[in-house]
Amino acid sequence: MTTVSQGAPAPRFAPPLALLLLLALMLASLLVGAADLSWAALSDQDWLILLVSRLPRTLALVLCGTSLAVSGLIMQMLVRNRFVEPGTTGTLEAATLGLLLMALFAPGLGVFTKMLVAALCALGGSLLFMALLRAIPLRSVVMVPLVGIMLGGVIGSVTLFIAYRFNLMQSLANWTNGDFSAVLRGRYELLWLTAALTGIAYTAANRFTLIGLGRNLAMNLGLGYRSVMLLGLIIVSLICAVTVVTAGVIPFLGLIVPNVVSLMMGDNLRRSLPWVAWLGAVLVLVCDLLGRLLRYPYEIPIGTVMGVLGSALFIYLLLKRTRPAYV
């Protein structure tokens, strides 16, 4: 059984340059859009577009990027496998199923209540995945995400059948394909909860690092293994529920970003988690800008762009990552 690597060198990319790059991408996100704004003298309509549409969209992109990348890193530590994320453990599919059930049985409830139900379903999917890992003897590191993908496929099939049976296919399509084009002021504020969850994850970073060392070693060091495991799963489930409710599913983000940062910095979460959050925000902003510019003035959903890039990077990581992953 391999352990967490702590000795990788720190990146040479200085924090001020990283912050400038993030701010530059946020500025580009504000500038790009189908509507032409008169930046020399903003009219009342220009201010309305900027404050109601573009600024909330940019903030939503940053919040989703940081939180989903951090949730992927936490999941990898909990499972001790570099090739898992909420999208390969059945968590996102379970959250989508929760939203569908709410749309079917309680469509009049508020967004916050729907998010809580989706989070409970996501937590149930994560716990089911962990139970399957304990029940199935796994000999290969690649088998772990395959188990999660198969579980997600089963949950997704049930969700698809229910949506088809009750004529909710359009709603399901909105949740399963990440898209920020409909994000407006008043419809993204729930994402600030993910910022608080990311802060909690950073506070517990050392505990999650110990989880990555293995159950026996973590308990020998005095860690409350089950409580920390449950805390991590709750954080991941809430982040997934909030992002699915607000913007839909964004695939591969929680898989790619932690792996890239791990190759540069190792697996000490206290040191690497801020960089994971930064790179997640940068990657989401870049993919969203690509989606807006490739067919300007039309827009490709970010879920499609991230799916293409993420799947290619996932295959690259499977084939080229030479350092042993968690077993």
Structure overview:
The chain is an all-alpha fold and 327 residues long. It has one domain: ABC transporter involved in vitamin B12 uptake, BtuC. It is 70% helix and 0% strand. It has helices at 15-31, 44-79, 91-105, 111-135, 143-165, 169-176, 192-203, 205-211, 215-220, 225-246, 253-265, 269-293, 302-320. The longest helix has 36 residues, at 44-79. The protein is globular and about 65 Å long. Mean pLDDT is 85; it is low at 1-11.
Helical fraction equals: 55-70%
Strand content: under 5%
Task: Count all strands and give the number.
Answer: 0
Tally of separate helices: 13
| CATH class call | Mainly Alpha
**H/E element order:** HHHHHHHHHHHHH
Indicate the CATH architecture. Orthogonal Bundle
Radius of gyration: 20 Å
| Total discrete domains | 1
Largest sheet: none
pLDDT averaged residue by residue: 85
Approximate shape = globular
Name the features.
ABC transporter involved in vitamin B12 uptake, BtuC; mainly alpha; single chain; 13 helices; 327 residues; 0% strand; disordered N terminus
Summed up, what is this model?
This protein has 327 residues and is mainly α.
Topology:
Elements: H1 15-31, H2 44-79, H3 91-105, H4 111-135, H5 143-165, H6 169-176, H7 192-203, H8 205-211, H9 215-220, H10 225-246, H11 253-265, H12 269-293, H13 302-320
Helix pairs in contact: 1-2, 1-12, 2-7, 2-10, 2-11, 2-12, 3-4, 3-5, 3-10, 4-10, 7-10, 11-12, 11-13, 12-13
